[in-house]
Amino acid sequence: MDYKFSNKLANLKPSAIREIFKNLTDPSVISFGGGNPSPESFPVAELKELAKGIFEKDSSVALQYSITEGYTPLREVLKARVKDKFSIGRDFDDTIIVSGGQQGIELACKTFCNEGDVVLCEEPSFIGALNSFRSNGARPVGVACDGEGIIPEMLEEKLKTVENVKLLYIIPTFQNPMGITTNLERRRRVYELCKQYGVMILEDNPYGELRFDGEDIPTIKSMDEEGVVIYCSSLSKILSAGMRIGYVVAPQAVTSKMVVAKQGEDVHTNIFFQMLCHKYMTECDIDEHIKKIRVIYRKKCTLMLDCLEKELPGDITFTRPKGGLFIWCTLPRGLDSAPFVKGLVEKKVAVVPGATFLSDENGKSSSFRLNYSTPSDDDIRRGVKILGEYAKEYLANN
Amino acid sequence: MDYKFSNKLANLKPSAIREIFKNLTDPSVISFGGGNPSPESFPVAELKELAKGIFEKDSSVALQYSITEGYTPLREVLKARVKDKFSIGRDFDDTIIVSGGQQGIELACKTFCNEGDVVLCEEPSFIGALNSFRSNGARPVGVACDGEGIIPEMLEEKLKTVENVKLLYIIPTFQNPMGITTNLERRRRVYELCKQYGVMILEDNPYGELRFDGEDIPTIKSMDEEGVVIYCSSLSKILSAGMRIGYVVAPQAVTSKMVVAKQGEDVHTNIFFQMLCHKYMTECDIDEHIKKIRVIYRKKCTLMLDCLEKELPGDITFTRPKGGLFIWCTLPRGLDSAPFVKGLVEKKVAVVPGATFLSDENGKSSSFRLNYSTPSDDDIRRGVKILGEYAKEYLANN
Fold first, then answer.
1. H-type helices in A58-165, by residue range?
2. Is pTM, for the whole model, over 0.90?
3. Does the structural domain B65-283 have CATH classification 3.40.640.10?
């Protein structure tokens, strides 16, 4: 059989990160490549007890088909939480449950983009989102960023010159892969520009609660009086990534379309774990729990930054995140990071090459991404030491 | 904000069934409308015990991100099972886990269809599948069926005359909504025709294990020596529908594309429940469990058929399924079932109008679907009695 795949999937490659993750079976490799939350951040004992209660009292609901929008009590508690924490949600908004933030991103694209339409995004951006746009036949176009986030002038230029732009995809807080945060003035400007040009904002905020330094900056969704913003977040970094539970806050006219698309994708999200999340959020102290995660991540991030400071040659620069999971390192002299990263894996340290995150699949990058949430403290020390030694030698010869 | 939705979603309506289900909050309504497995078919006590063990021993895997293809031990056990039970799987095939059979259907469409391409399907067919094709911009085109399943001559005519056909979607065993089963000769003919015309077969088999009468008929996938068939099934009707776990057996060249598309949709399926299913399938006797479900469904189906025989006016015909969840009733004289069903809801009995399942969203149907797996025996008796009285009166006046 000669398979004729759809145009959108014919040439799409699997995410390099997922593939790295899949092949990382060699236990002697220290991985800074993943984006996994620390296993310590999952409240196992509480979830176990609550799960037992669901099996005992609510199994006929928890194991049966449910409604696509999600478990109503969980939607209510999430709605109240984002309103309280982030001033998110107006009367025209609705909150729905999705199978991880990833599905929220994908559904937003499906809802607004025809094949060939454009999604603007930060350059570089989250590969999972870029590939979900591509697998829907939409085309990601990057907008330049600096240490303060997306550059509004560059965004306006794209809005003016690129045709068929339907969405701006943005991770304003602790961006993946760079770890940077868009400042408040720019968030306001981004909102106004998109409103002006009639382009929906898809605000992805998976790491917003993982701030361990500095003050919260208002989300773009908190400014949304006109129904321009689709806000996407998840419980993956707080309760469990493996359960695949995320949520979307967006104008009801938009969520109702997303719900129709979701029906066709998976009918609904695992209802047992929706009920489990609801129980956890109402019967346990999630804020105390998040405080603990922040302490873990501050410690791990500080440790990695200290090690980088000490071990890396001075001409490699890196970001200093105040939350989230990632540090972004850049080689000097515009050196391509792809061969650098390939050689590093042979030294048993895995990182993700920056080109992975570009809107142009054939683009080159001088940067690479480090994750500090997953490796043990000892692996951080040993891995960065290897990285530093390797980098010194590499830069001397290239 | 004036929302400009994608062409594929702009006019798509939510599934009538999901909407009926959502609004069925009036406890005095007897529902034959759903497609839910009987709650008695979920092995709650065993799942509870096994879940406890996962929290205690494997939580760091069960709550963490995992790989898109699915939990390898579950893939292996499912692969062995379908090989053993249904002679499914050749060397070129791979088995992947999806978030319910629904996702397998959707991914197959995404993998093969560009916007505007055609998916042939039985007329009538499963609304969830039709809507997932529509939400990908593909167009379902119906092929006529009779009591022995899809009519090969009609299929060939469509294959000859309709342009850009990429898939045939077919539920050969205990079809939804009709409850009919495609005979062996036709299955062979369908396979040969699709091979000849270079069209992939998407064989959906959610009910195959729920046969309570007669002999198994080989799946189309069991004939697949050339890699023409994507086989889709799930554990929804056997272990739990709410957990959203299904699987796909298809040529590896195809599953690898489906995996890329799945990455963009939900990264992976809830891993805790994948592990739970694996444990159940290796530590408990799933065949014994399925035998029990068959006994329940035989009893319920027989009861509903007996009641229909007794209560319905003789000029309403209905199918006599040998498995699955549904009975298909047809009004005489080509009467439109839509106003009939509407009036019946006012008598507090809900069924699904046949037009819901047509490839033409504006089409009319004389039929309606009854589900016997969800209602209690008493509700079956009372509901069919109301249906019979209402039908007699309706037919006398229309």
1. 59-62, 72-86, 101-112, 127-134, 152-161
2. yes
3. yes
